[in-house]
């Protein structure tokens, strides 16, 4: 599932391509809204709320989409070949005289009144990259169920919005706790630091084309760019801190990575 920084970057691309323009093509390829026509409406802008995308149009209409695991929005210039996937995977086409935005494999796509947006995003906790960010509320939410596993608590968007599987694994490594440790067993300074580190990581990566948690960037050597993350996607490779091989487990259809030496707690 895309992380909050990825969704924010997608919102920025949509906003840059469509905001202020009038739609010349509107094609929503989902049964419920297949007959809806936004053609002729001006696009007011696109914004992210956690992992949700809200594209707003004049007359108080919002197109709500969510990328989940495989969805994406691509922006094309006039005449440019669409490369996001086969036509049967297209769920939305929004075109202006200058650009065309195409949504692929979108599991959530719906129209609603802009005034009703809270119905789809009101349940979210403080947005790590949003104006509503509140670390104290996020910490209280995270610790509200002491018996819950750290990894599950971090992924629950009702606690704090924007963390996906990549950041979950990386944050647990940086906190030196396995994702299966009950969150109530985290010392308060560690739990507090977990929230502040989550904010720092997403802020640091919101403008980067390639995510990093270790400080390695694409400007460094090819070897170093393979070490942009501490544990995620590095099963069998040596831990960057202790050289112990990173382990991987599949849980709830998500791969979980951790270092058995650096991280304390249950392992599944």
From TrEMBL:
Ranges where the Formamidopyrimidine-DNA glycosylase catalytic domain occurs: 2-103
Keywords, comma-separated and alphabetical: DNA damage, DNA repair, DNA-binding, Glycosidase, Hydrolase, Lyase, Metal-binding, Multifunctional enzyme, Zinc, Zinc-finger
Keyword Metal-binding assigned: yes
SUPFAM superfamilies xref list: Glucocorticoid receptor-like (DNA-binding domain) (SSF57716), N-terminal domain of MutM-like DNA repair proteins (SSF81624), S13-like H2TH domain (SSF46946)
Residue ranges constituting the FPG-type domain according to the UniProt record: 230-264
InterPro entries: FPG_cat, FPG_N, H2TH_FPG, Nei2_N, Ribosomal_uS13-like_H2TH, Znf_DNA_glyclase/AP_lyase, Znf_FPG/IleRS
Cofactor(s) required, per the database record: Zn(2+)
Top-level taxon: Bacteria
Enzyme Commission number, as recorded: 4.2.99.18
Enzyme class (EC, first level): lyase
Family stated for the protein in its record: Belongs to the FPG family.
Name by which UniProt lists this protein: DNA-(apurinic or apyrimidinic site) lyase
Species this protein is from: Streptomyces atroolivaceus
């Amino acid at each position: 599932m895309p992380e909050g920084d990825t969704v924010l970057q997608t919102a920025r691309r949509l906003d840059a391509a469509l905001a202020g323009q009038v739609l010349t093509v509107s094609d929503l390829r989902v049964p419920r809204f297949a007959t809806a026509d936004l053609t002729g409406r001006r696009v007011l802008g696109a914004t992210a709320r956690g992992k949700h995308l809200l594209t707003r149009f004049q007359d108080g209409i919002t197109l709500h989409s969510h990328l989940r695991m495989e969805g994406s929005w691509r922006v094309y210039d006039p005449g440019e070949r669409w490369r996001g996937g086969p036509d049967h995977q297209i769920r939305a086409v929004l075109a202006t005289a200058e650009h065309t935005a195409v949504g692929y494999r979108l599991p959530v796509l719906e129209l609603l009144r802009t005034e009703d947006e809270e119905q789809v995003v009101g349940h979210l906790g403080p947005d790590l990259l949003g104006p509503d960010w509140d670390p104290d509320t996020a910490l209280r939410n995270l610790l509200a169920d002491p018996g819950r596993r750290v990894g599950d608590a971090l992924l629950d968007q009702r606690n704090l919005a924007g963390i996906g599987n990549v950041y979950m694994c990386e944050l647990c490594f940086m906190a030196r706790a396995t994702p299966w440790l009950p969150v109530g067993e985290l010392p308060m300074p560690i739990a507090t630091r977990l929230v502040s580190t989550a904010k720092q990581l997403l802020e640091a990566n919101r403008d980067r084309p390639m995510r990093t948690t270790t400080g390695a960037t694409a400007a460094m050597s090819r070897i170093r760019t393979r070490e942009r993350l501490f544990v995620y996607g590095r099963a069998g490779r040596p831990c960057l801190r202790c050289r112990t091989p990173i382990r991987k487990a599949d849980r709830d259809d998500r791969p979980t990575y951790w270092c058995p030496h650096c991280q304390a707690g249950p392992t599944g």
